[in-house]
TrEMBL record:
Keywords: Protease inhibitor, Serine protease inhibitor. The keyword Glycosyltransferase does not apply. One of its GO terms (cellular component) is extracellular space. This is (Mediterranean fruit fly) hypothetical protein. Belongs to the serpin family. SUPFAM superfamilies: Serpins. SMART domains: SERPIN. GO terms for molecular function: serine-type endopeptidase inhibitor activity. InterPro entries: Serpin_CS (IPR023795), Serpin_dom (IPR023796), Serpin_fam (IPR000215), Serpin_sf (IPR036186), Serpin_sf_1 (IPR042178), Serpin_sf_2 (IPR042185). Pfam families: Serpin. Residues 2-263 form the Serpin domain.
């Protein structure tokens, strides 16, 4: 076996952090490839790596809730754990999907091109049923049903890291020559005539925390202070398993999606990703 380790910190230094991690966008990309097998008689293989990171500034910044408060996340009606929670308030779009027994909450990013859609079942243990019933058109239906409401939103901090392999899927849609030693033509990339792609690896990281610009955070703090005497706002607490969708609102498609059963948070982005593939 030959191990390929992609050190993200090294790439960031070589290509400059700004080009990979832009503050004005929520999506940051890192791509790399490695060629192995140049020894005599060996098949020359290429590994393609792509990393996508989603972490943006909120249009309405969240503030961290004190760890001293009871911030419980209920995995089931009888099983709960304390997790880091954050809170914000303002005007948000909310849709009630009665046929799913769930609600959809739209959390816009500072870059208005993107938003995070939280699909929250009304029942603590309702996620399984929600996943079984949810259809692609339900997100479009939610958009048409959405109403603006003044809310106090409580959301757990979380991060999801996922590594996937794409060879089988790409072959199933007809991209086969790229993986065949006899048919692949990558002569523009290498002098090795038998070079072909052996593996396609994608790493996706979605990070949700209280990030917000200092200007917006100050505005939010001042607003909360000025309105402290106003009537209590309607509250949506995301304190049970839910689905999330990172949306491109202009093109109307899903960039990343997932489910949260137990929120987990990491202090930093991963500094290394290691994959292995066989050397023939």
């Amino acid at each position: 076996m030959i191990a390929l380790e992609s050190h993200i910190s090294s790439v960031r230094r070589a290509l400059s952090a700004r080009s990979l991690f832009r503050k004005e966008d929520i999506a940051h990309a890192l791509s790399a490839n490695s060629i192995t097998g140049r020894s005599a008689g060996a098949k020359t293989k290429m590994l393609l790596f792509n990393g996508l990171y989603f972490a943006g500034l909120w249009a309405k910044p969240f503030t961290k809730i004190s760890a001293d408060e009871d911030n419980f996340f209920f995995m089931t009606a009888e099983d709960a754990t304390k997790v880091p929670m954050m809170q914000t308030k303002g005007t948000f779009h909310v849709a009630e999907l009665e046929h799913l027994n769930a609600k959809v909450l739209c959390l816009p990013y500072e870059n208005k091109k993107y938003a995070m859609m939280i699909v929250l079942p009304n029942e603590t243990e309702g996620l399984r049923s929600l996943i079984e019933k949810l259809q692609a058109e339900d997100l479009k239906k939610a958009k048409s049903l959405a109403q603006q409401r003044e809310l106090r939103v409580t959301l757990p901090k979380f991060q999801v890291d996922e590594t996937s392999r794409s060879e089988a899927m790409l072959k199933s849609i007809g991209l086969k020559k790229l993986f065949a030693r006899e048919e692949s033509d990558l002569s523009l990339l290498s002098v090795d005539n038998d070079l072909h792609v052996d593996e396609v690896v994608q790493f996706v990281s979605v990070r949700v925390d209280e990030s917000g610009s200092s200007e917006n955070a100050l505005t939010a703090s001042d607003s909360q202070a000025r309105t402290s005497g106003t009537p209590e706002l309607e509250s949506i607490e995301v304190n049970r398993p839910f689905l999330y969708f990172v949306m491109d609102c202009e093109e109307e498609f899903v960039i990343a999606a997932g489910k949260i059963y137990t929120p987990e948070v990491k202090d930093e982005l991963p500094i290394a990703i290691e994959v292995e593939f066989e050397q023939s």
